[in-house]
Fold each of these.
Amino acid sequence: MMRLVGLFVLAVGSHASLLDWIKKEVDVHAYNADTSRWIKTSRAPSDKVLTLTVAMRVEAAARTELERLFWEVSDPKSEKYGAYRNLDEITQILAVPKESVQVVRQHFLTAGAISAESAPTGDMITVVTPVHAAEVALNTTLHTFVHSEHEKVTIIRAATHYALPGGVAERVNMVGELLQFPRLPSKKLRGLVGSASWPNSCTAPGCGGLVTPSVLSQRYKLPTQDSSTSGGKANSMAVAEFQGQYYEDSDLKQFSESCHADVKVAANVGGNQQSAGVESELDIEYIKSVAPEVPLTVVYSDEYSLLNWVNQITSMANPIFVHSVSYGNDELQQSSTQYMETCNTAFMKAGLRGISILFASGDQGVCGRSGCGFLTHARFHPDFPAASPYITAVGGTDFATKGVIGEETAWSSGGGGFSDTFGIPDYQKQAVAGYLASSDANFPPQNLWNRTGRGYPDVAALGGQKNPYCVATGGRFGGVAGTSASCPVVAGVFARLNGLRLAAGKPPMGFLNPFIYQNPSGFQDVTSGTNGATRKYGFTAVKGWDAATGMGTPDYAALAKLSMSVQSSKEIVV
């Protein structure tokens, strides 16, 4: 007998009506692919091979212990700060029965999967399977979806609910991302022309008036490269890329020569087809411009799967310490709260290993990808994973005065706001309370947002259309904007800070938010601008933390001192 599980796998209690439960889940997360501009076309080819990530059930007590330890090692005020755990220790904490893993693996293999490999920690299984076998295993039909703006990008998703047999379903939390539709960067943020009057520090004329590495160095007080404080081979950082976002070595070389940078990829996980992807090359060129001495890994996957990506990075024997990710979507567009909670558990695993994860906060202001309607102003739509309490969200800014490298203002389309799903975490309670009490904030009507939710972004950096970044892609230079630019810049800053700590025998910084909120003097406050995009309402940047620019933009000189002053556990276990 197959158990219908609605939008994710769950063992339904005997006191609940299954149909009522499904209806409730659909009401809460009524997702239509069209809201993300994905359009269903034909049935997926039966022999097409895809990768599925199966999240195993983790007992509540085990998740509670995981979270306790996560906060303990992430809080600079804790005596256990930096005392990270290795894979064996996390496996013991999660305590997923080996029998359960084997039952689930065998179910997919019997249906015709090519492989079903368990993560070292036992809580996720990566299934490589042809479409026809996936449809048998999940009792569903799979379709191809195309994106209305990115016509060459296709994904395979379930067109209906999926189901697992009872004996399997009770061991599984969910199968992702069968029902998630990723946000792709808008083409409107590409090919922009610069208008700033500062000197073009790159030799390429196409960089004139655009943000270049020297602009970032001046504004964020970045020192010249210093190998003695780089952390050496022990240090590491990565960018996540999906769905055909490759890079060309010739573009990286051209950027390096023109902009006097040292942009090289040290390692690639997942492969690279040597074709230009502007989003990938934006990430690579600017995280390396900020942290040229830190080895960079590109983690690539053809299929967008947040769970598969985080499973990859947490399963590495030697974890990469800083990860920049420019993908996400609205909370409303996630298939369920259970899916988001499953991602959060994986983010905690990462933090417990000493890994810092930074996500772009989005490029549609407070309304998100779903929009706020046309005739009336609908409720704001917070982003996920940006609104997760267990990652660092990066918002966007512009320079306050055109052509002047100085104070910044909130980018009108930078993502920011308050979660409708997760409450305010302890690390930001004081900062959020200060914002909510501000007389300068000019808050939107209360019916449009949740004042008790987790506030985001946590920090920000240049990303707006007034000051697009100069990127070498496809053999040419052009302007690109968005929080997809802001995120790798901030990630590069923290990778450099890790280098200072590693060179001094200290552990990496791990989950960054407790440090960020305990050290506001490490950031340049942004006190103007609103992130309503083209709509009437948005959140206003004010003194201190705000829901448009977070704590502000990095001051590397200040952060270097603050990061080195934090007391850490002497034992480094990664």
Amino acid sequence: MSFRDWAFSRRRFTLAGRLESVAVLAQAVPGLRGFKRAGVALIAGALSATAMAPLYLVPILFLSIPVLIWLIDGAGGGTRGIWRAAASGWLFGFGFFLAGLHWVGNAFLVDADTFGWMIPFVAVLFPGGLALFPALACAIARTFWRKDASRVVLFAALWSLSEWLRGHILTGFPWNDLGHAWVSVAPIMQSVAWIGISGLSLITVLAAAAFAPLSGAVRRGRKIDRRALIWPAAALAGLAGLGLAGFVRLLTPDPMPVDGARVRIVHAALPQQTIDDPAMREPIFTTYLALTARPGLEKVTHVIWPEAAVPFVLSRTPAALDAIGAMLGPHTVLITGAPRLQHSVEGPDPKVFNSAHVIDGEGHILGTYDKSHLVPFGEYLPLRSILSRLGLLQLAGNLGSFDEGPGPRTLWAPGAGPLGPLICYEIIFSGSVIDPRARPDWLVNMTDDSWFGSGAGPRQHFDQARLRAVEEGLPVVRAANRGISAVIDPKGRVIARAPLDDTGTLDSDLPGPLPPTFYARWRELPYAVAIISMLLICFWPRSKAASKLLPPPSRAR
């Protein structure tokens, strides 16, 4: 029965008819070759990106992921089959990252005269490089592929491992893991408090892959093979259970706000061209002083400015520190981003850090944190001696390349206790956002999202902050230039939020912390155990009875 015949029949309204449509689609996909096969992989990957912010079309994953599995089904055997599976995985990944990370091109338009020529290369090389990870997962999966139930588990484990590797290799870029789609569903998002984002991504791809066996749901005589419904039913039941557990967590008592603490987030919508202009340094500083001094400051105990709010070396500008002290008053503390210079005994050139300072009401710097996870090509140029000869430059080059700080550090903010500062995209690195020797009571994320444009980028970045709050059980106060400034409670709920691209202030009580979550105690250990267990299940010798748990895909009749 062709898909057209099915579409114009009454059978399409029945369960058997709907299952038969899946079988017809699954029959067609593995047999595709050439440009049709490549096009399906590319489109399926691009559609998968709609599951992320700002659209959150999560159900699309339950179609796009099975399509990739069906493409691997039809890749063939031997070395050619492995390469064909890798190509399908690369095209799927290229479509996914091209659609989901298209906003990266905005950074090269900030100074279009200097960097605009790089956009075509970035549009291909950036998503193309990230797509190597799903390509590797699909190639390894095809090597050990069996057209039975085990392929669901094998694919999920290898895809999840590829996401984990992407988040760690070459400084890592853990952006838009499949688990990020669940930020739009608060109960399921709570699961990262137990299993982290890696665990949630693993469950997400496993649940989506579980719909691939529906290809064998309709057998000869158009009868439903109920064994084919086991995996999708188990996937839906598992997600429902996860949501129920999260719903219960949301109902547990919330911690009391920090007694006597009230924060004011000062955020602006300054374009990057203005920040990079040396002539604008004093006007920018004056703008932040004026915004901070708006009515109600006398009730505020802690003021938060974004990354790059002070576009000069604040620690070496006593007049600016005096102006801050005069503006704050004796009982208010400022936490702000600013560059920092440090003379080195190793050479004549000083080190330059992207830093955060805690400043008291007398203009004294109480503590400093130096950003440790720098943005490649943004804050430093990898292989500088080689790439600079090719004409490549770093994007943020007004003070030269930044130097790397020693790692997460807990600072003390009088009146609000220990805090964990995170500058820009440091918030995206799950499990690496706090000093393990001194757990903070709250996280402060200072960022300049003017590089990201006004579309998906700032929203995806904001979702990462919400996930870190749930993982660690800590509130997050986020100050963003041309981004989303907000106060987030330890369960990932937004207590107060400023509109994107807004200029103004946002006042809020400071939520209290929760005790360390299960994930905060055990980190990736449960995830590692799950991955190893899944791979053992796939490779362990099976009895004939076990191999018949689910019949292989067959032609729809």
